[in-house]
UniProtKB/TrEMBL annotation:
It comes from Drosophila grimshawi (Hawaiian fruit fly). Residues 1-61, 88-150, 660-733 are annotated as: Disordered. InterPro entries: ARM-type_fold (IPR016024), Noc2 (IPR005343). The gene is Dgri\GH11259. It is found in: Nucleus. This is GH11259.
Length: 751
């Protein structure tokens, strides 16, 4: 209203306020005839007032008469909208009376001024228009002031900032300005309310994809080197960054920048952009150490990417986790180990050719994390191995379906693999070696729990873990009886009744169904697994002093199998293996006979030295195993390449399993932690195992007996036949799949 008042003063300096009041009142009044206006100017107000009063009285009577006409509707208004009735009955009279009093005063003052001056002043139309325009301009100015005067970021500003950041003497103010611009860029594309408030309070405003990409590029490429120059870090300095003198100047703005950076990583789903941001975060990892709370938030998101991202994203996320954890190992290591183990267990529920490489990577990288501090790792390993033992004990004692399911699943088997790999990797250090015996006992108990042909794949997975542990720790583990036992199975020795269209592989299978047991592919894979495991274990033991005595039971079992087997392919493989075992046994006897006089069995060092000499000479079995591995790997690659062609030629149907409504509960004792805790409510129901069987009677794992041949009368009741093993619930922890890509305009080719 500033412009309006100035114009009024120029027209009439003596009475500007009165004219403005009259202008407002006249504009607010309803349009009256000219005769009525003249009567108001002359003071004859009695001709208009009675009409208003009559209208008010009639309205009031109508509302009061509503009680008698429609009492229910009046009660409804009184209960639900009482203010409406009060406004109609009371507020209108008061407002009209106030307006009438104001009009009377204004008219009286105008009459007095007309008598004194002899003229009636009427503001012109131009004054009203000018006042309206000025009000609009003032409103726009107020909006700009409320926005805080945010400065729009241009390409010239980005070039100036880039020049400032690349100077040898970088100012702290330039770093702060760039971080504020990054915050404004993130707030411009974020729907979060807090980010929106920060955008309004920010000193900069990012508009357009070009400005956004320029700000992100500037921070990713030049911010970390600029901060290093601000702090004055020397090239070979081992002093932590937060120990430098100028750290206090950049601490506050750097904290906000790291929070914005991890928030941007959470919202990006594009793999290429995520790789660039993770590389930048890896550069900034040394600056996360002073921020404990922020560091936990960053590590939590990185662990999600490590467990669920693509191949390159997983590797970069792990490198960031490793670097951040090593910078603050004392405070972060226990938190990281627990979170990574739980993420590993959650994401190892299903094993397939697509998920197997990711699970193997998580297991190897997790072993590296546990190897950082073996004293701290012992507490975690002891706790989780003890939980595995509790589940196995419940299965052995209760012998119920739920307890069996808590053991025979991929999560349990992958946990056994993890701890065996960890104990094998730390074999040269004594901290974790006391856990070898309980882990071997648990793994052997899992194999003995249901020793049927259906679970031969699970048996082979457990045996592979035991053999790897024995080779790494140089510990004797009685694995041979568990391998040879497969050859005496009734199911394996029966003739096959079906021909499989493609060879079976037990790599991603724990359990076989009745149809798979009847195929010839099952027998082929079992013979292949038995030969492979015997070769791997015996080739390692072939250089030991007691090898010729160790293989006596194996030789007897193989000879007995060759007498009963009628398959030429199987007998050829077993006969070749038997010949190599006997040849290696004769080789060890010859070496022992040469040094029997000089060798003292009580001297462990002398025995180890003798075994090392024999290992350097290489036994016949060791040489044969090396050639077998090359042939076997070539065969596996050829089978993997032919899988797609076989599926296309035969049009193999896919099984559709209905999703279950409920999960299987896991039994826990009082005071015991859950084996596989999860943040999901569905996961709390239990850990069901993988069911590859659609048959009704063959899928019950509560019956450990082997299926007997040719019993047509054996039928299960309808209720039991309908009992199926629940399917796995959806993985709640997959947050990366639900992320939204908010940096679609960011093009790596422009960088």
């Amino acid at each position: 209203m500033k412009v309006a008042t100035k114009k009024v003063k120029s027209l009439d300096k003596s009475k500007p306020k009165k004219s403005l009041i009259k202008k407002k009142k006249l504009s607010e009044e309803p349009q009256l005839p000219k005769a009525a206006k003249k009567t108001v100017k002359k003071g004859k107000k009695d001709e208009i007032k009675p009409k208003k009063k009559v209208a008010k009285k009639s309205l009031k009577k109508d509302l009061e008469g509503l009680k008698d006409i429609d009492p229910e509707f009046y009660d409804f208004l009184k209960k639900n909208d009482k203010e409406l009735l009060d406004f109609n009955l009371m507020g209108s009279d008061d407002d009209d009376e106030e307006e009438e009093e104001a009009e009377e005063k204004a008219a009286a003052e105008d009459l007095d001024s007309e008598d004194d001056d002899g003229k009636y002043h009427k503001p012109s139309d131009d004054l009203a228009v000018a006042s309206d325009e000025s009000e609009g301009e003032d409103d726009d100015a107020d909006e700009e002031e409320s926005a805080g005067g945010a400065q729009k970021i241009t390409l010239n500003m980005l070039r100036q900032w880039e020049l400032q950041l690349t100077k040898p003497n970088v100012s702290v103010e330039a770093v702060r300005q760039v971080i504020q611009a990054f915050n404004s860029a993130l707030a411009s594309i974020s729907a979060d309310a807090e980010m929106g408030e920060q955008a309004n309070a920010s000193a900069y405003k990012v508009v357009g994809a070009a400005a956004f990409n320029g700000v992100i590029q500037l921070c990713v490429l030049h911010l970390q080197p600029a901060i290093i120059r601000v702090l004055g870090v020397r090239p070979n300095s081992s002093l932590p960054l937060h120990k430098h003198k100028k750290w206090v100047k950049v601490r506050g703005c750097l904290r906000y920048y790291l929070g914005d950076l991890i928030r941007l990583v959470e919202q990006v789903s594009s793999t290429n952009i995520l790789n660039v941001l993770l590389k930048h975060l890896h550069q900034m990892a040394g600056m996360v150490a002073p921020f404990t709370t922020l560091g936990k938030t960053i590590l939590k998101r990185l662990i999600v990417l490590w467990a669920t991202g693509d191949e390159t994203v997983r590797v970069l996320a792990f490198l960031c986790i490793l670097k951040i954890t090593r910078k603050q190992q004392a405070t972060m290591l226990n938190h990281v180990l627990k979170a990574m183990y739980l993420a590993y267990v959650r994401n190892s529920k299903f094993v397939s050719p697509n998920t197997l490489p990711g699970i193997n990577f998580m297991r190897r990288s997790l072993v590296e994390m546990f190897a950082l501090d073996l004293n701290a790792s012992y507490q975690h390993a002891f706790l989780y191995i003890r939980q595995l033992a509790i589940h196995l004990r419940n299965a052995v004692i209760l012998k119920k379906k739920d307890s069996f399911q808590a053991v025979y699943n991929w999560q349990y088997i992958n946990s056994l693999r993890l701890w065996s790999d960890l104990l094998g990797a730390s074999a040269n250090k004594p901290q974790l070696q006391p856990l070898v015996y309980p882990l071997v006992t648990i793994t052997t108990g899992v194999i003995r729990l249901i020793p049927t042909a259906q679970y031969f794949p699970l048996r082979f997975h457990c045996l592979q873990s035991l053999i790897s542990l024995a080779k790494e720790t140089q510990t004797f583990i009685p694995v041979l009886p568990l391998i040879v036992e497969v050859l005496r199975s009734n199911t394996f020795n029966r003739k096959h009744t079906a021909v499989s269209m493609k060879p079976q592989q037990f790599t991603c299978i724990l359990r076989l169904n009745k149809a798979q047991l009847a195929e010839n592919g099952f027998r082929d894979e079992v013979v292949e697994q038995v030969c492979g495991l015997l070769l791997e274990y015996l080739s390692h033991e072939s250089a030991t002093l007691a090898f010729s005595d160790l293989v006596v039971p194996v030789v007897m079992a193989l000879k007995a199998y060759l007498k009963e087997c009628r398959n030429a392919n199987y007998t050829r493989k077993m006969k070749q293996l038997l010949d190599k075992i006997q040849e290696s046994a004769r080789f060890i006897e010859q070496q022992r006979s040469k040094t029997s006089v000089q060798l003292d069995l009580k001297n462990a060092q002398a025995v180890q030295a003798w075994e090392q000499q024999v290992r350097n000479k290489r036994t016949p079995l060791d040489i044969y195993y090396a050639s077998w591995v090359k042939t076997h790997e070539t065969k596996k690659r050829r089978q993997a390449a032919q899988t797609d062609d076989i599926n296309a030629d035969y049009d193999i149907p896919k099984l559709k399993r209905p999703a279950a409504k409920t999960g299987v509960p896991v039994r826990n004792e009082d005071g015991e932690l859950e084996l596989f805790p999860s943040d999901s409510e569905d996961d709390d129901a239990g850990i069901p195992y993988q069911d590859d069987d659609d048959d009704d009677d063959d899928g019950d794992i509560s019956e450990p007996e082997e299926p007997q041949p040719k019993k047509p009368k054996r039928k299960q009741p309808k209720e039991q036949s309908k009992e199926t093993i629940p399917a796995e619930p959806a993985d709640y922890y997959d947050e990366a799949a639900a992320a939204v890509d908010i940096v679609k305009d960011l093009d790596l080719s422009d960088w």
